[in-house]
Amino acid sequence: MNIAILASVFFTVFFVILAAAGGKKEDDLMSRLDLSQQKDSSKPKLQLSKVIIGGLTSRISALKYSWLVKYRDDVRQKLNQAGNPAELTPDGFITLVLVSIIGMILLEVLFLKKINIVAFGIFGIMGYFLPNASLKNMITKRHHSILRELPNILDLLTLSMEAGIDFNAAVNKVISKSEKSPLTDELRLMQQGLRLGQSRKESMTEMSKRVSLDALTSVISAIIQADNLGASLGPVLRVQSEQMRIERFQLAEKLAHQAPVKMLFPLMFFIFPSIVIMLFGPLALKFMGGVFGGVF
After folding, report:
1. Could you tell me which residues come within 8 angstroms of residue 205 by beta carbon, excluding any fewer than 6 positions away?
2. Residue ranges covered by each domain of the chain
3. What residues of the chain score a pLDDT lower than 50?
4. d(CA 187, CA 18)
């Protein structure tokens, strides 16, 4: 009976996590086909999940502890760095973390079938770190994507400006001709800020704060400085593009030099023992057969 109750609670938490992670995204196939019956059948579950998530989020939003306000600001910055694909608010992400902690604790009870304070702590910590680790992984992937694409975007901007197009028109041209990517998304947000009345400096500074990537911040600082001095942006962008390629090449060399050190552990503990067993195992068996053959 207790297992059934815990299982029902766990699956409720599971559906809540799915609803929170799904955000406002719609499935492409569902948007093309007329599947009203399937939508109606799943509507009660989604409404229940939204009610639970909304209730928890509203309660968390009402809390004004200083440590929670600081954590909320940190989460907001990380969500911006990750591009916030699920369109979560900081309080929504905190709710997701809380649900993850509860779900992991319920998993511990289901598997161990007993209450253990130490196991509670371990699974609770795992539940806390899972959403945060996933968010950090998204930030890392997004930063790598921006670093890979930044030199090419700078080259396109340089060519456009050298052809006589101003900076804003060059950015619009690059956005329209390039495939959708994290960097083009940020450029699109920057252009939206300009259309809303922000200056170029303000919109680019906001983009730098959103992404929080040193390489992009350096490029933006150079553009703002050249703009303040009235210098041409074309040569500045070309220099920044060349510098980015040099830094990327240096990073590749650094990672190549670190590879032997990273391979040392698996070589010593996994590959070398296997080689020793293959080479000396038959000799050892023959030796043991010769020494103990007469005994057995």
Report:
1. 220, 224
2. 2-115, 144-249
3. 1-11, 14-43, 45-46, 48, 295-296
4. 30
- Measured N-to-C along each axis, helices 117-162 and 90-112 cross at an angle, to the nearest 10 degrees, of 140
* Domain at 144-249: CATH code: 1.20.81
The confidence score (pLDDT) of residue 231 equals 82
Render pLDDT for 94-111 as a digit per residue (tens, 0 to 9): 888 888 888 888 888 887
3-state secondary structure 223-280: HHHHHHHCCCHHHHHHHHHHHHHHHHHHHHHHHHHHHHHHHHHHHHHHHHHHHHHHHH
Residue type, 79: L
pTM, entire model: 0.68
Burial class (CB in 10 A: 0-12, 13-18, 19+), 183: buried
> What distance separates the 2 farthest-apart alpha carbons in the chain?
96
51: tokens are 């009610």
